[in-house]
Design goal:
The chain is mainly alpha-helical. Helix content is 80%, strand content 0%. The longest helix has 30 residues, at 43-72. It starts with a helix and ends in a 14-residue tail after the last helix.
Length: 220
């Protein structure tokens, strides 16, 4: 049961986080304009936001599910040492980069590198070992289908990014027009290519009745 929980929880985290990450990454400027109220966002701020966003996305895939489950299964000591190692690496890398390059982006990169390393090279193999598969097999079972399904969304967002004329002067208008289109495409692709037939059936049963496909009456 714990193995199934590890796999399915990680899989659903990837399903939900991946399209949201793509939308936020491509419209980070508009999001920052809305959040800060500033019409102009400098390049360094955008880069810091992108690095931190990718750090958060990577940590969702590797840290969020595994740490919660392992905390409930008596692995507090090992998690403590991993967390301590990540914190020390974060501090050392961030300070070293700041002293060399003298900019705030180094702090974000200093957070990303140890989180990425400990997540993918320690926590992910740990999960795979407990599930009884290789790291690559676990990646295929939990992540690969979602990433492949989101490739058309990535292509759409890239095409929009290369056409500045498609964006509106007001950032909220851009989000309100582009976001639902990309979100609908992501939903259709994930439903068709990332979910299994039992999962689609289970989700369909939870939908309101008026959205469910109606069975055709038999003709005598």
């Amino acid at each position: 049961a714990i193995r199934d929980l590890l796999v399915q929880s990680t899989r659903w985290s990837v399903l939900i986080a991946t399209p949201l990450y793509l939308l936020c990454a491509f419209y980070i400027k508009e999001l920052l304009q809305i959040l800060t109220g500033d019409a102009i966002i400098n390049q360094e701020t955008l880069l810091v936001a992108e690095v931190l966003l990718f750090w958060f996305f990577s940590s969702i895939l590797t840290h969020s599910t595994s740490k919660r489950i392992y905390m409930m299964c008596g692995h507090e000591r090992k998690l403590m040492w991993l967390g301590l190692g990540e914190a020390i690496a974060n501090l050392v890398i961030s300070l070293s980069l700041v002293l060399v390059f003298r900019n705030i982006l180094c702090v974000a990169i200093g957070s990303l590198i140890p989180s990425f390393y400990f997540g993918w090279f320690h926590l992910w193999p740990w999960m795979a070992k407990d599930v009884g598969v290789s790291s690559w097999t676990l990646f295929k079972r939990t992540t690969l289908s979602t990433l492949v399904a989101c490739l058309p969304v990535l292509g759409l967002l890239t095409a929009v990014l290369l056409q500045p004329s498609l964006k509106f002067e007001k950032p909220w208008m851009t989000l309100l027009t582009h976001g639902p289109i990309a979100g609908l495409l992501a939903t259709i692709l994930l439903w068709r290519f990332a979910l299994t037939e039992p999962e689609r059936a289970a989700l369909a049963r939870r939908m309101p009745r008026y959205t469910r496909p109606q069975a055709q009456p038999e003709i005598a």
